[in-house]
Amino acid sequence: VLGEDYIRTAQAKGLSQRVVTVRHALRNALIPVVTYLGPLAAAVLTGSLVVEQIFAIPGMGRYFVTSISSRDYPMVMAVVVIYALIIVGVNLLVDILYTVIDPRIGHGN
Fold this sequence. Notes:
Layout: H1 5-12, H2 17-46, H3 48-54, H4 60-69, H5 73-101
Helix pairs in contact: 1-2, 2-5, 3-4, 4-5
């Protein structure tokens, strides 16, 4: 990113190295990081199902597994909806962060 034309243009304008790094280089370098960390955060939150079952930790994941074995379908559907809302919420947060990091992304037609 530091070798791109817009970085050289910002340096040629006389901006300090700190401003060039924070405003131009870091903002453009954050987009792939946010793209990776968004689904990773959702996976960590929903991965509690496995961890709670393996280590016998009481929680929503363990309750979900016992609900499956006891055929408590309303509870299974509720947990699936909650986890789906978590995933959708994290993806929405990632999309909002895209427009904060790079305002050009939010100006689609």
